[in-house]
Amino acid sequence: MSNKSYIAIDLKSFYASVECIERGLDPLTTNLVVADNSRTEKTICLAVTSSLKSYGVSGRPRLFEVIQQVDKINASRLFQLKNKEFTGNSYDKKDLDKNLNLKVDYIVAPPRMAFYMKYSAEIYNIYLKYVS
């Protein structure tokens, strides 16, 4: 009897990762949500990057929940600054971790479902090349 090996590959926050890569940004450190902000703030976010999740944003929030959570984080950062003003803002966790004077920001990327399907097919073809 032959031994079988299994592999599990997690495409972490896939839609959000695709949007980061397409912008030349690191998906692990960029604060980004995929949501249609042309609708109301009640719209559901289709994906959230892990760096934004590290601030307490859930995996499938409504856009207003992202706004509320980021506002809370910024209020806390401002309190730590003794209510001084922020000197700038950033959507990159590395910059934010290094500099408390920066306001936490994030990118709202509109969903592109057909584009994600193409990306997914490319990744699947890579899997087939090495695993069959």
Describe this structure in words.
By secondary structure, this protein is of the alpha/beta class. It has one domain: MutS, DNA mismatch repair protein, domain I, CATH 3.40.1170. Helix content is 42%, strand content 11%. The chain contains 5 helices and 5 strands; from the N terminus they run αββααβαββα. It has helices at residues 14-22, 50-53, 63-80, 93-98, 113-130; strands spanning 32-34, 47-48, 88-90, 102-104, 107-109. The strands form 2 sheets. Strands 2-1-5 form a 3-stranded mixed β-sheet. The chain has a two-stranded parallel ribbon with strand order 3-4. Strand 3 (88-90), helix 4 (93-98) and strand 4 form a beta-alpha-beta unit. The longest helix is centred in the middle third of the chain and has 18 residues, at 63-80. It is elongated and about 65 Å long. It starts with 13 loop residues before the first helix and ends with a helix. The mean pLDDT is 92.
Share of helix, binned = 40-55%
Order of helices and strands: HEEHHEHEEH
**CATH domain class name:** Alpha Beta
Shape: elongated
Average pLDDT rating = 92
What's the helix count? 5
Rg of Cα set: 18 Å
